[in-house]
Write a structure and sequence with these properties.
Blueprint lengths: L1 H24 L4 H17 L1 H11 L2 H15 L9 H29 L5 H30 L2 H7 L1 H17 L20 H16 L3 H11 L6 H27 L1 H11 L2 H7 L2 H19 L1 H9 L5 H29 L1 H29 L1
Helix pairs in contact: 1-5, 1-6, 1-8, 2-5, 2-16, 3-5, 3-16, 4-5, 4-8, 5-16, 6-11, 6-15, 9-16, 9-17, 11-12, 11-14, 12-14, 12-17, 13-14, 16-17
């Protein structure tokens, strides 16, 4: 599944890296590009609750996973054939819906597959491989555009990793048709609900997401203030993605050893990124972006690994759907609020970002203590 994610990330992160200028080339306005990006993320996260519930009800985790990845593998390369920005918007929206379709079921499959090696280690490995694809494809497409300047060719080439994604998925499905068997025993179909710790954990997740500044706003700030040259901005992002991959592996392994303390450590390190990137000089900005990568790596790995610990096995699809829905809505609201504060009062943005993450850490301390008392 890590290989599947690597290949799929090459498709949709590659497409994402050039979709903005492609829409502009097709005649879309800057407002439309912004609306498509924001609405797409809301769709990608908001619908996960629905598909998570349905995957639990039907127990057809492979079907949801394969259908989601297959849709992505088709619609992103199809952008090469879009003759207008309206058609391109429809295809980009379908890609976001496909992510919502597959994500809860895919995370449930991973929760079964990683039980024997440790949830943290397994989800960390998955995120590290995911980031390899997220870095490789945009760089490859940048080379294609520098060579030929042909967006249709760039999108068309994404058919290759898309086809390999489906082949890898079908191979996994053939070898492990009953994913619950990977956990050692088939979980009973119970109607047991979620614990108070799970709901408190979701509150903490929402605060983390709302307080975590998205990279476009950081890049906008760096470009506007000229703290670093324009050429260094994508380089800083690539560095942060590399840190993300390493942090996912490191803190994933730590999560299996020390539990929620690993999440608290990663959150404490990430707490300082906002003051550094918005107030510091070049060296402090680089340090801030590294800490931003640590926080993102933890969010993409051990935040999900903790869901597998807190949710009953028979309801993990719903649990991951709830997790992603809360995360996505909080991210959307937080990004909007932080953007408004950036235009009006930069210190207020920093205070809100740090304050929300500190609140999340306090809530996680409560969850960790309750978990320790339970054991």
């Amino acid at each position: 599944m890590g290989l599947v994610s690597l290949l799929a990330d090459m498709v949709y992160e590659g497409g994402r890296s050039i979709s903005g200028p492609y829409l502009a080339l097709l005649g879309a306005s800057g407002t439309m590009v912004g609306l498509v990006a924001g609405a797409g993320e809301l769709i990608a996260y908001g619908l996960r609750l629905v598909f998570g519930y349905l995957s639990d009800r039907t127990r057809r985790y492979w079907a949801f996973t394969i259908a989601g990845y297959a849709t992505t593998a088709l619609v992103v390369p199809a952008l090469a054939l879009a003759g207008s920005w309206q058609v391109a918007v429809v295809l980009l929206t379908l890609e976001r819906m496909s992510k919502a379709l597959r994500s809860p079921a895919k995370d449930t499959l991973l929760s079964y597959a990683t039980r024997s090696i440790g949830y943290g280690k397994g989800f960390g490995l998955h995120e590290a491989l995911d980031q390899i694809g997220a870095i490789a494809a945009p760089l490859a497409l940048a080379a294609v555009l520098a060579w030929r300047g042909d967006y249709q060719l760039a999108f068309g080439l994404l058919l290759i990793p898309g086809a390999l994604t489906i082949l890898a998925l079908l191979a996994a499905r053939a070898r492990f048709p009953q994913p619950a068997d990977l956990a050692g025993a088939t979980p009973p179909l119970t109607s047991r609900g979620f614990t108070g710790d799970f709901w408190l954990y979701l509150v903490a997740v929402g605060w983390i997401a709302a307080g975590f500044v998205d990279f476009p706003l950081i890049a906008f700030h760096l470009e506007r203030t000229a703290v670093v040259s324009a050429a260094w901005i994508p380089a800083l992002y690539a560095m942060a993605m590399a840190v993300d991959a390493g942090a996912a592996l490191l803190f994933g392994a730590l999560f299996d050893r020390i539990g929620y303390a690993a999440l608290l450590l990663a959150g404490a390190l990430a707490l300082a990124f906002a003051p550094l990137v918005f107030l510091g000089g070049p060296a402090l900005v680089a340090l801030g972006m590294a800490l931003w990568g640590v926080g993102l790596g933890a969010q993409e790995s051990i935040l999900r690994a903790a869901v597998a610990r807190l949710a009953p096995a028979a309801r993990r699809g719903t649990a991951f759907g709830l997790f992603n829905t809360v995360y996505g809505i909080a991210w959307f609201i937080g990004s909007a609020a932080l953007g408004v504060l950036y235009d009006r009062a930069l210190p207020a943005l920093i205070v809100l970002s740090v304050g929300l993450q500190a609140l999340a850490l306090a809530a996680l301390v409560v969850v960790a203590r309750r978990g320790a008392a339970g054991r």
